[in-house]
Amino acid sequence: MKRLSFMFGKLVSALTVLAIFAAAVFLIPGFWGLRPFTVLSGSMEPAISTGAVAFIRMGAWEGKAGEIIMYRLGEGGNAPVVTHRIAEVRDGCFITKGDANEEADPVPVKPDQIEGSFVFQLPLAGYVLAGWSREAARAAAAWLAFLNVLTVFAEAAGSGKEHEIKRERRAGRKLRLFRGNEDGEKRETDGDDGGSLRSDRGGSAGRNHGLSDRQ
After folding, report:
1. Based on the domain organization, do 60 and 109 belong to the same domain?
2. Domain range enclosing 77
3. Is 88 inside any structural domain?
4. pTM (whole model) above 0.85
5. pLDDT tens for each residue of 172-198
6. What is the pLDDT at residue 99?
7. Are 128 and 139 part of one and the same domain?
8. Residues 105, 144: one domain?
């Protein structure tokens, strides 16, 4: 049981560290204005691989040829986004093209469509995020917190039980030691009484014998 509790605690600790690391990877870049986006196509390979998470610096772009930008295919925050490279600047608009595509995108991109510029990617991370929603992440975090609390209580109960066993063992050793000392004192007392009795008997006999000689 103790070994099982130990292994369970190690597993929960490993999952907690992994969750904290994953959260840090996706949340810390936000302090520098970077937002993660999942790449669903291979149009930018090999620069950006399919299934990667691309980190975009929001609102920061130069608008020059060769820069990778993320833009929306229309107006509004719900419009789909595309991450392509600027191939040409023409009449205040941008001609974009995917590195893996043979032809440029048919519709020029206006400046107000651009969300930001590409900074770096995490390959394959998008496949992990694809099955996660905010509700699923919150549920996982709640379960992880519950498991950590359960582990703390299990370790506390195990420590208390172990302490109780050690205390009983110490009490048993003290009891055996006390009984051993008591038996030793009893044997020593019996030995002293026997010697006194033998001495008294020998002394009486000697005195009686001496009286017989004087008569």
Report:
1. yes
2. 33-132
3. yes
4. no
5. 565 565 555 555 555 556 555 555 445
6. 96
7. no
8. no
